[in-house]
Amino acid sequence: MIRKKICLLGSFAVGKTSLVRRFVHSEFSDRYQTTVGVKVDKKLVRVEDQDVSLVIWDLHGEDRWQTVRTSYLRGASGALLVADGTRLETLEVVRGLSQTFLDMNPKATVRVLVNKLDLLESFAIPQEEWRARIDWAPMAFTSAKTGEGVEEAFEALARGGSA
Amino acid sequence: MSDESAPEGFAQALWQAALGEGLSAWAELDADQRVVRFGGDWGHFGWEHPQVGQAAMDALPLLLGELPARGPLQGMRRMHAVQWTGGAAADLTLFPLPQGTGLLAYDVSAQVAHQGRMQQEGNQLSLVTARLAGKGLGSALNSEDDLLSLLKMAVFEADEEGRCRALGTLAPWAEALVEENAAGERTLVRGDGLGFLDNFLEDALEFWRAGAAGHLTSGVWCEGQPDEEERCYEALAVLDEQGRRNLVLERVDARFQERQRVLQRARQAHLSLETLEGEVHKKEVLLQCIVHDLRGPLSNMMAVLSLLDERDMERPKEKELLALARRQADKQDRMMRELLDIFAAEVRALQSFEAHAASAPDLGAAVEYQVQHMGPAFEEKGVRLSARVEPGPWPVVADADRLDRVLRNLVGNALHHAPAGSEVELWLHRTRRKPEVAPGGSRQSSSSAPSDATAEEWAELSVLDRGPGVAPDKATQIFDRFVQSGLATSGGTVGLGLYFCRNAVQTWGGRCGYRDREGGGADFWIQLRPAR
Ligand SMILES: Nc1nc2c(ncn2[C@@H]2O[C@H](COP(=O)(O)OP(=O)(O)O)[C@@H](O)[C@H]2O)c(=O)[nH]1
Ligand SMILES: [Mg+2]
Questions:
Q1: What pLDDT digit, counting tens, does each position of B170-187 carry?
Q2: B436: which chain A residues are within 8 Å (Cβ-Cβ)?
Q3: How far apart are the first and last CA of chain B?
Q4: Span B2-106 CATH architecture
Q5: What average pLDDT does the segment B412-418 reach?
Q6: pLDDT class of B2 with cuts at 50, 70, 90
């Protein structure tokens, strides 16, 4: 079976843990924000008639992302770089992390997610503007709360990248 | 404590590792278990300072039974949270050294005190939770083992490939991490190569190969399903004097005491929130009634007022009074709108729901309950209400109270739109969802049964009426109408119910939606995850 390691990277409280939880366990809650350390989850997905086992690394402490050990990124075939639609500053963090990640895994795929789409009314900048600013990588809007775009995001990584 | 007197080799590595946590006393014993060297602050633990040449057992009677009378120690021994009269609680570790035995003690009184507090808070909390969930109290009491298992370590020796053999006795939590091979050796279970420990072992092998002094730590990682208590670990790679590769695995839950305490507080806050939510709910129902009752007569009044024609009025006084009455009616209407605005803000504040998978309500039972409960209202309007429930049980991920409210809203909505003499039907059945491959996670029903074995079976409840249905341009907004227009009315009722339904259902990881019913009418559906 094909196995792929996927890392979730991004600033603090952008919704990385919530996205994993939504994808792996189909649920959303405000209760889960206190997780500490690195959390590894697994999920089997089917892509083009093939089973792909995704090993998902939810990396914490990434608010001071210099402290994310680059060794954690080793062997990953993809990363979801998560920004918070309501906080523009989270985009800068994502850009930096993208570089770090690709230095470590030149052949891997990255995908930027602008999360919290359900809070569209409070977005820092309009959707088109997000799109325009993230022209350096494939991007999508998601909501861990409603589930919108979440499956597609993980599936896109399951499909792409070298194992 | 000077550097010359520090222990060497593996002991030194451990000593360094422990320094960060407040190492307080150590000793090195010879093969006869006599003190060769010692250091640190023994008095801190309420112990007499030992003398060189003294038998360790005399210096520290609590070693009795832990230390063999003579000869090398087999593997590592740890005594957890030992406390001597008047001293601080210590974690005491005995480990084999080339010529004897090493002894390390460090202060864990803060952890112990905190764990005790946490345990107490935890117990209180689970009592409250259990009572709320209507469960027995016995099952809510935690065993004291939890407290001890939080402070333990497991030690392994690795070969060149990173296969890790367990040394000494393992704590119960560590037993789950090893498997026994044909030679009877217990080795650390390796994963698929992409997991955390596998990743760290690669670094560790590198570190051992380099022959560097000191130690390499993995950083903390956590395991556990959403409904379980999280298990947090940290691994430590050290190389001893003989070049043996040691891997120390530690449960570090205790180190996160501060964050754990925050978690406890958050949970308590959540309980209060739930109580509050109940109050708000009552108020909401009350307001809904008041608004409904007040608006009816008011709109009649406004209609009557608009029919009165001032041209028919003879005396100027009458015209004036009519204008006044109209102004007053308008004002009252405006006040009610404002009231609804405040009300809407409160409803928005209610968005933080929780899914209690453990107390899984039965959707089938909830449906039957609605049929009974709403029966009279239907009878009054001359509408039949029936339920078609496929064989259960139907445990779903939801909150029992809110699930009832969701159903009440959907059924009430159907009643409102159903013409007299028609029938409203509740249809509960299973539907297969393929969360992994379904493109778009769309709100459309996926009741077409895929052959795919990975598809999940969800519960789907359809509420079917023969009313006018929903216009296509409104269909996508129907569940958030209240938010968008602030005051949307449909035949006089406030479009709050569906908004509430959507919020609740989504919080449980479910879906809801609308589709036209075949043959005319509306089909409002919700899909909920089965609780396991
Ligand atoms: N409204 C909304 N809130 C979200 C969403 N995703 C996460 N959150 C909330 O944002 C906060 C941080 O989420 P978390 O997953 O812990 O972020 P992390 O630090 O990146 O792992 C939590 O309170 C979540 O409930 C989303 O899509 N919509
Ligand atoms: Mg997180």
A1: 777 788 889 988 888 889
A2: 43-46, 151, 155
A3: 56
A4: 2-Layer Sandwich (3.30)
A5: 88
A6: very low
